Amino acid sequence: MTIHTCRTAHAPQGKNYMMEINPKWVNSSPEDSLNTIDARWIDMLSGVFIDITAVHRTAKKPGMMFCKDDHHYREADLFPLRDSVFEDRPVKIPYNYAELLQQEYGRVSLTRTRFAG
Asked: Bridge-partner residues for 17, per DSSP?
């Protein structure tokens, strides 16, 4: 685990985040159901976290990628990555992010700005 302090205009004193890496992240087999999350980015104040899963190419289906939780993606939906901003920081996001979010969470994922739960 590594602690990162990020200072922004909205949080000049800084916010602490923990990056936790699963030591089994290199195992791409979906059969290891207890280790589907490869890493986690955790806001240490609120406990809110972002799960991170690695995507892998498959020789069986050229142009397709998968992650351990058995999600499949077209490589063209992920790459090239787009530039964006998250909490005042530059980040890279999937090329076809809107379609991917709608497939996973429904259309409301692009319009709802508050989440309670």
From this structure: 4, 43
- The DSSP output letter for 11 is -
Q: Please give the C-alpha separations between residue 15 and each of 8, 74, 109, 113, in angstroms, as whole numbers.
A: 9, 35, 26, 22
- CA–CA separation, 27 and 15 (whole Å): 32
At 43-63, the pLDDT tens digits run 999 999 999 999 999 888 999
- Residue 21 β-bridge partners: 39
Name the token pair of 47. 């406990």
The sign of the CA dihedral 73, 76, 81, 83 is negative
- The neighbour count for residue 38, using CB atoms within 10 Å, is 20
pLDDT tens sequence across 17-42: 999 999 988 888 888 888 899 999 99
Report the predicted TM-score, pTM, of the whole model to 2 decimal places. Answer: 0.74
